[in-house]
Amino acid sequence: MNGTNHVIAFTDVGKVEIEAHPLCKCDPDKMLIKTDYCALCTYEQRVFSGVHKTPFPYIGGHEVSGTVVEVGEELQGKDFKVGDKVVVGVNLPCGTCYYCRTGQSQSCPNFSDRKILPASPYPGSGALKEYLMAGPQNVFRYYDVTPKEACLIEPVSCVLHSVESTDPQFGDYAVIIGAGMMGQLHSQLARLKGCATIVIDMNVERLKLAKQLGATYVIDPSREDAQAKVLEYTHGLGADHVYDTTPIAEVAEDAIKYLGFCGKLVIYSGIYPDKKIAVDPHMVHKKAIQIIGSANSNQRDFIRSSKLLSHGLIDVKPFIQGVYEARDAQKAFETAPGRFRNIIHLHF
Ligand SMILES: [Zn+2]
Ligand SMILES: [Zn+2]
What we know:
Layout: E1 4-12, E2 15-22, E3 31-39, H1 42-49, E4 63-71, E5 85-88, H2 98-101, E6 131-134, E7 139-141, H3 147-150, H4 153-164, E8 173-177, H5 181-192, E9 196-200, H6 204-212, E10 217-219, H7 226-233, E11 239-244, H8 249-255, E12 259-267, H9 281-287, E13 290-293, H10 299-310, E14 320-325, H11 329-334, E15 341-345
């Protein structure tokens, strides 16, 4: 395929521009994918606002759906064919280190957003483009769900990884702090794993949505004593799992108090600004508490996440706030709603 590959590039703080680059030939061991939709994650929003500093020009975007339009010579007659609806991910881990080779590529120490991906003129996760080129290890099929929803397979894969890191069991109690998209997804997935969920947020609308999406209980800490409520709902036990989805250090410090004995806390979000917190090691010892970090997702998470959406087990529709055409990308970034998603239709 010859032609042009339009890209939406970050060219400065607060600025994205559409550029036309030549489309390179498809490598024999890769596929060419025409993109459909890309969601603007908090990561891209932080690059746009300058909170996350990276040299420009840069191409962001990592929550993307598309269609296979060309299959490289070596891949023909194998797993993928032209017309397959797919998402693309797990591009930034190195693929060769100990962690990548033991199925833990989500924690690759060489993970780099300065990597220049195939068919990309600039560094970055690179999905905000008309065409992507990727090998089968980075391409995941989906079915029976719209391309708009499918671009959220990536965030679901990250949350799936997070929820599984505490090994929930039927009848467990899960507290989710923050009712943005990531909190809502934690609640939905913890429910699927058999937990009674308690979602904590100060935004009444978000709490209402959490209830609609199946949360067992919701708590507004600006109006009620959250710790007392958690103890009430768990009949004095406290939570088996606490997932903190907020970027606030003080909230992470506070999250420990919701845990019961043998409870596990996941720090899911990056913390901005980066700040230390106080943890009482004696209490961690005595209550046998575990504090766990979770970031990103791996190939297996992507495959399972795409099945969850393909079979309607997870509802992501409520998280899509605005849909913008590529030419309005600047506006899509300027109005990006923080805890939910604007998505861009990548037709140029
Ligand atoms: Zn993301
Ligand atoms: Zn690696």
